[in-house]
């Protein structure tokens, strides 16, 4: 299979499977929950859409990343939360319903915010003859392809909840395998750049990930949210949809730049270990309080 075929066939399939898994876990009530609990959702979105891009910009500048790598890191910062955040939040006794709502809402909002953030990054970091603007119309096309499986999954859950529940776990396993393959693909596409820049990009991605987790947990606590909601937002902010960022970077119809996919690929590898450590820490430090809040919410 050629590299072009991998980009045009494999990446859309991988994204479709992952987003189908998200749809199987969603209902319309997950979106309606925004009206019922606006404060945690607005705080989570504020951290995701405002604080993280600023943090990411200063990290890219501070590490002196090459232009394409800096844009790739900004692309990652602009991407919505990943579906794995739900699992990690569950294991850490976070508010999984809040995770689901944030992932659903942020995936839709990202249609508007991703082109804006990425185009600003292209204009700032890239030379005029290197910058290829991320066209809004094309991003909408991609998100239509991405959100289509979500809608299908939601319809399946609505019409056949038993089947949806039975398929949820297998689809999650398949999604995880696809995520690994997408990360490997991104490494293979520009292996020499990975070798040359891995230490610097790895440190930048690790710092961004740790700050994301800290912001996602710390800001909600400062805003007097319960710990379970803070854990949920921390996981949502710390675990990005790296598959989407990689797909946008590699897609011939969008950025078509393998180097831009490297930060998301490295981050996608790092985040599972840091999220696990974060989950262990909050349970070790605040396990009794989380258990009490979980019991009260049940």
From TrEMBL:
Keyword annotations: Membrane, Transmembrane, Transmembrane helix
InterPro entries (UniProt xref): BilAc:Na_symport/Acr3, Bilac:Na_transpt, Na+/solute_symporter_sf
Subcellular location: Membrane
TM region(s), chain numbering: 6-29, 41-60, 66-88, 100-126, 138-159, 171-188, 200-219, 231-255, 261-282
GO cellular component: membrane
Main location (coarse class): membrane
Pfam families in UniProt: SBF
UniProt topology in membrane: Multi-pass membrane protein
Keyword Ligase (UniProt): no
PANTHER family according to UniProt: P3 PROTEIN (PTHR10361:SF24), SODIUM-BILE ACID COTRANSPORTER (PTHR10361)
Name by which UniProt lists this protein: Bile acid:sodium symporter family protein
């Amino acid at each position: 299979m050629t590299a072009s075929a991998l980009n045009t066939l494999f990446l859309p399939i991988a994204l479709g499977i992952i987003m189908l898994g998200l749809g199987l876990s969603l209902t319309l009530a997950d979106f309606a929950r925004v009206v019922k609990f606006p404060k945690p959702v607005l705080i989570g979105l504020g951290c995701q859409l405002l604080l993280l891009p600023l943090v990411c910009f200063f990290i890219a500048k501070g590490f002196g990343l090459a232009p394409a790598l800096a844009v790739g890191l900004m692309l990652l910062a602009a991407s919505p939360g990943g579906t794995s955040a739900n699992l990690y939040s569950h294991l850490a006794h976070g508010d999984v319903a809040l995770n689901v709502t944030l992932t659903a809402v942020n995936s839709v909002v990202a249609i508007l915010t991703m082109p804006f953030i990425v185009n600003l990054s292209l204009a700032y970091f890239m030379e005029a003859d290197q910058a290829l603007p991320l066209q809004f119309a094309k991003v909408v096309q991609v998100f239509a392809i991405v959100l289509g499986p979500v809608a299908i999954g939601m319809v399946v859950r609505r019409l056949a909840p038993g089947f949806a529940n039975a398929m949820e776990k297998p689809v999650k396993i398949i999604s995880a395998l696809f995520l690994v393959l997408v990360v490997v693909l991104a490494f293979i596409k520009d292996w020499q750049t990975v070798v040359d820049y891995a230490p610097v990009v790895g440190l930048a991605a690790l710092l961004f990930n740790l700050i994301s987790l800290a912001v996602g947990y710390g800001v909600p606590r400062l805003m007097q949210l319960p710990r379970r909601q803070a854990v949920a937002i921390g996981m949502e902010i710390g675990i990005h949809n790296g598959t989407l960022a990689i797909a946008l970077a590699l897609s011939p119809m969008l950025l078509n730049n393998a180097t831009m996919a490297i930060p998301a690929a490295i981050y996608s590898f790092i985040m599972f270990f840091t999220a696990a450590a974060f989950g262990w820490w909050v349970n070790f430090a605040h396990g009794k309080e989380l258990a009490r809040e979980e019991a009260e919410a049940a």
